[in-house]
Amino acid sequence: MMYPVGGYYAMPSPVEIRKLYAGTEAEKAAASAVEANPAARAIVDDVNFVQYEMSRLDGSEFDTDSSKQNVSLDAQPKKTNFFQRLTGIGLTPVEEIATFQKSKEPVSSVEGVLKADEMDVTVNYEGKDSLVYSKVEAEDGAVFFQRGNETVGIDANGNLIMGQI
Predict the structure, then answer these.
(1) Residues 131, 147: contact at Cβ < 8 Å?
(2) Going by DSSP bridges, is the β-strand pair 150-154/8-10 parallel, antiparallel, or unpaired?
């Protein structure tokens, strides 16, 4: 999407893009605060990436939940070669999630659930602790993001709350 500015087109700012893809009003209100805080931005962007990849799995051969817009999976990613990891060509969303953190440890499995207001995904490594990605939207509009033991909360007013588990 480009905006006309004086006869030319300009790209929207990262804050405008974040507002465009926000799932709740609280996320929209906190868009500039998340963009200004590198630690919060990293967590929120990582969790949103995993959520996007999970949504791509809806109705695929990996999805064990037959209902629309809900995804449940327990899959082992295939082994990828250097070219695939470098370019991303030929990777399924499961491999995208598995190679996302670029760990040196091989991924044994990816398991998780995606529902309308909740996502829990666990990436299991061989010889390393698992990494959890979680996003929960509360009834009052608050949103909570988790990547591993790092958390970011956005209350219903759009205020940012950083923490660790």
Answers:
(1) yes
(2) unpaired
For 61, phi and psi rounded to 5 degrees?
-65, -15
| Alpha carbon separation from 145 to 30, 95, 105 (Å, rounded) | 13, 22, 24
Residues in a beta bridge with 147: 133, 150
Residue that has been written with the tokens 């999407």 in this structure: 1
pTM over 0.90: no
Question: How does pLDDT run across 67-122, given as a tens digit for each residue?
Answer: 888 899 899 988 888 888 778 788 889 988 888 876 678 889 999 999 988 999 99
- Residue 143 near residue 128 (C-beta atoms within 8 A): no
**18 closest CA partner among 31, 37, 30:** 31
Please report which helix (H) or strand (E) contains residue 97, including its range. helix 93-98
Residue 105 pairs in a beta bridge with none
Token pair for residue 56?
A: 């791509």
Quickly tell me which residue has 């939940």 as its tokens.
65
Produce one character per residue of 101-125: b if its CB has 16 or more CB atoms within 10 Å, e if not: eeeeeebebbebbbeeeebbbebbb
